[in-house]
Amino acid sequence: MDDPVNTPEFWEACYESEMDGWDLGGPTPVFQRLASELPKGRICVIGCGRGYDAVTFAKSGFDVTAIDFTDNAISATKLNAEKANVNVNLIQEDIFNLPDNLHFSFDYIMEYTCFCAISPLRRFEYDRVVWQLLKPGGKLLGLFLPLDKELDEGGPPWGVTKSELHDLFGLHWKLVSEEMPKDSISKRLDRETLMIWEKK
Ligand SMILES: C[S@@+](CC[C@H](N)C(=O)[O-])C[C@H]1O[C@@H](n2cnc3c(N)ncnc32)[C@H](O)[C@@H]1O
Question: What is the domain extent for residue 188?
């Protein structure tokens, strides 16, 4: 892939130059809610960043695996898990290059600002990757943004629309629920949609 955004070096540079405007500095309220409501199981957080949401699920009793391809993200997630005294299994790898032994492993995938961080040309591949990681009947917990940006404005983050998400996931997944969360953080309110898709 020629686009530098597809490389860990691009994202390491974002972390090192503090161009990390996506980082909330703590857990996401929407995922705190889901962690308290959903039946416990194995969850995989893809593009985990500093791992605040991975730690939230671990604190709630989920068996958590967090994946990111940067040293910065993985070491920060490790530290945050240690501080919270919880276990998070860490995998430093490109989500498009995961070993086959992870296939059909998880009850849930947690998605937040990873989909919009990858090149839009790879969205079909993304669909396949998350589908393969899940057990039959497993669920993709996706908080997708930004809904208010056009694709041709560039990225990351690249814009996303609800209709694109329906077209992309509609074939191999069943929509369980869809909402514009009232507990989005204020600067993302009405700019993100929470969709839960079940693997068919
Ligand atoms: C915008 S940040 C979001 C981090 C985190 N989800 C959050 O909301 O704070 C995107 C993260 O995905 C990681 N990432 C991007 N493309 C990736 C890929 N192909 N494989 C693994 N990680 C990737 C980056 O290293 C970065 O940590």
Answer: 4-8+29-199
- The mean pLDDT value of the chain amounts to 97
CA of 135 to the centre of ligand 1 (A): 23
Among 114, 143, 184, say which to mutate for ligand 1: greatest number of ligand atoms within 8 Å of CB.
114
- Is residue 24 one of the residues assigned to a domain? no
CB atoms within 10 A of CB 170: 12
Asked if the structure places residue 45 within a domain, the reply is yes
Tell me the CA–centroid distance for residue 117 and ligand 1, in Å.
7
Give the burial class of 2: count Cβ atoms within 10 A of its Cβ; 0-12 exposed, 13-18 middle, 19 or more buried: exposed
CB 175 within 8 A of CB 163: no
139-185 pLDDT tens trace: 999 999 999 999 999 999 999 999 999 999 999 999 999 999 999 99
CA gap 159, 145 in Å, rounded: 7
